[in-house]
């Protein structure tokens, strides 16, 4: 019996009404799903492809396939119709073709695809530079002495300073490291403790953020007064910062959002915009930046080069490390990255399965630091890389030495009797020497001591209770081991002295030759390390010497010999020339003594003659 497809009295049949309702429901579900998950509408976004595949392509494929089968078999209310069956069969291929396009685009994004290796290697432009010339010696009062974990611990303990909010809010785990008014700090907004706390406080907003000074270890809760944070990651609905920015810029692909404050302490969200430069999904980099006012939600869309100076985190650290690894792997081609591996390098692995990098402050920017090791990932580095998080400016410094993990183990061995744990090292310049600096923490996570370690000679480890004490001990240790330190004009621990050598002896310490010198009327013992101070071999006991040395509670380490050797004879001649009157009086005295002796002898001879007569 034929099915009538006409409507009775111009009205929809029940089945047609159900179909319309189903379509409307699907559209509503899709709209709600898009609002909730807010994937970017961008062909280069994997989130977009997943959303389309699940909510569009799969339902279409199932619908077309089911209709094709129904018309082919003549089941249910559908009569057998070979033409319609074929039409729906062809239509069912369309979602499959779209998926295949995505797969081809993904394959075209891979590094082995012809020409892609060169593209990957050129995303991050890295130059080779000299460490001592490019990295200024850091002021120890500006060294970040704590790591992120310690900053989180200190920050969370400050919640007691706002007792009226302590049960309503908690500090976000973000803790972004930035430069704030010339100091390295970590900042993190407060967030609603749970859904019910959000319902009770959403009208007032988030009243403060946490700020931890990485140098002084001071932590505080900064109140925002009449300008609270209204857009945050703890907001579940419209004011959720991810949803707010993505829906405002639906075609942008965003990377990790960063919480920062400007020079006036005003909170902002820094939202990097991704770009894919290779195939559909490969060659990720940052194209633009959206800055969102955390109070009003107002957004500003800027090119990377237009970002204000106070912004520190445009390029996420993980992305910069990934881009450098592309450069290290593919600069000589894809085949070399797998077979010959000549010149292939990579950043050093971190601890606990995380990437191995840290941050340093330079030129009022935050730079990502990581050691660079060979493709075999051994326990040594061939150098290290610094990348600017705001501009992606990248520099490589060739320095052979120990990996960060080896340095941490060496520092822990220095205080193994105390059971302290080393933090991931920070790279600093001490008198021209690339140096690992790290804090030593107890089991409670509190910083107890500090360590400095020579990257090139990682057995040289100095520890101290303060940064200044550690720096002085480290410089003394380097000088003792014959390391020539750059003249940084540091007069706080370098002293000049001169005197007559009373005694000089030689010794061999850890395979290095040393001359130990004692001066007349001086209680200090001075260490002249060879081959750095080779000039000391020309000196002998009784010679005059002038030199600079590093003051120490034990043996003082000589830094520089000043002037030429002055022998004891030359010193006496110089003294005579400087005071001739004293020399003449001495000569006359000697002559008088000689004449008196002669007269006495003559008198004795005369007395003897008389006695004989």
Overall outline? elongated
Determine the fraction of residues in helical runs and give it as a percent range. Answer: 25-40%
Sheet/helix structural class? alpha+beta
Radius of gyration: 39 Å
Describe the structure.
By secondary structure, the chain is of the alpha+beta class. It contains 14 helices and 28 strands. Strands 1, 12, 13, 14, 16 and 17 form a six-stranded mixed beta sheet that branches. α2 packs antiparallel against α3. The longest helix is centred in the C-terminal third of the chain and has 33 residues, at 580-612.
Chain-wise SSE layout:
Blueprint: H1 14-37, H2 46-73, H3 82-107, H4 116-121, E1 126-129, H5 131-134, H6 148-157, E2 169-171, E3 176-180, E4 183-192, H7 195-201, E5 208-213, E6 219-223, H8 241-248, E7 253-254, E8 258-261, E9 267-278, E10 282-293, E11 299-303, H9 317-330, H10 334-338, E12 345-347, E13 358-362, E14 365-374, E15 380-381, E16 383-388, E17 394-397, E18 401-402, H11 404-414, E19 421-422, E20 426-430, E21 433-441, E22 447-454, E23 461-464, H12 467-480, E24 494-509, E25 512-519, E26 525-529, E27 544-550, E28 556-566, H13 568-578, H14 580-612
Parallel strand pairs: 1-17, 26-28
Antiparallel strand pairs: 2-4, 3-4, 4-5, 5-6, 7-9, 8-9, 9-10, 10-11, 12-14, 13-14, 14-16, 15-18, 16-17, 19-21, 20-21, 21-22, 22-23, 24-25, 24-27, 25-26, 27-28
Helix pairs in contact: 2-3
